[in-house]
Amino acid sequence: TGYGVFKMSQQEAIAATNDDATAAKCSAVKKGYWKDDFVKCFWGMKRLPPASPLIHRGYYIRVMAVTRYVLSFLETVGDQAQIISLGAGFDTLFLRLLQGGHRLHRFVEVDFPTVIQAKSELLQSKRMLIDTLKDHQDTYRLLGLDLADINALQARLTEAGVDPSKPTLVLSECVLVYNHLTTVTNLLEWATQTFEHVCWFDYEPMNPNDQFGRMMVANLKARRCELLSMASSALEQAERFQTAGFDQVSGLDLGQVQATLPAEDMARAFKLEFLDEYEEWNLFNQHYSVVTATKGSLLEEVSFK
Hints:
Elements: H1 4-31, H2 39-43, H3 53-77, E1 82-86, H4 93-99, E2 106-111, H5 113-123, H6 127-133, E3 140-144, H7 150-159, E4 168-173, H8 181-194, E5 198-205, H9 211-222, H10 234-243, E6 248-253, H11 254-258, H12 263-270, H13 278-285, E7 288-295
Parallel strand pairs: 1-2, 1-4, 2-3, 4-5
Antiparallel strand pairs: 5-7, 6-7
């Protein structure tokens, strides 16, 4: 039990970042950056903390990229699709997919047991969420566990009806970075060794070596969130996927991702609020990576571009 107190407090600190993400998404949706009818159900009546235009834009690009990647995956494989969302928190992706008429074989969310418990309670207490999920209990599974325990992850996914022969997408957004590199390597190798056809979308902070990066690390460390496997660049993060056995890997920073998204919608979103911190915005973009990786020819066309 020496594992006890520190381990729990660090888990709680990482779990608390879910509240930050939910609040920031709620705030951006309220401003009109993108449409999400469900996110407010997970924030409730609490007052939203102020969020800067820079934070809103960062989340807009992140949400656009992951949504476009998921839709490209579903377009490629249809209703045989499996999605495993690691560190999903209070993310609303499955609800939005159902609202859009999409059907999947399995959608599984994995997070710390405390987060999963809180999400389960909300899903069972809000009428809008109950109605949306009504006929889809077989498809949707919530698993509370620690990603460091690969055997438990595999066993619980098997119990949840995840089929290694079906095309599978793994999502990780600001998740891998909180794990030791050995855990990250094990997770990536597990994916390529378990699934015949698999793709992965990963979004993480990176580049801790300059002033902006050091400040980012220090701010999170002050909240007991240790960034245990932060890559120095998008290229370094991408190489981890390549080494683990993915066939096709792409690593971009957030600025490069922005350049691939539809210009018209981005122009609309960026007009919503005035941004005068352009230098800081450029620095922000240089400190987040998006890596996409595929194994198997079936998924080689999946892309957010």
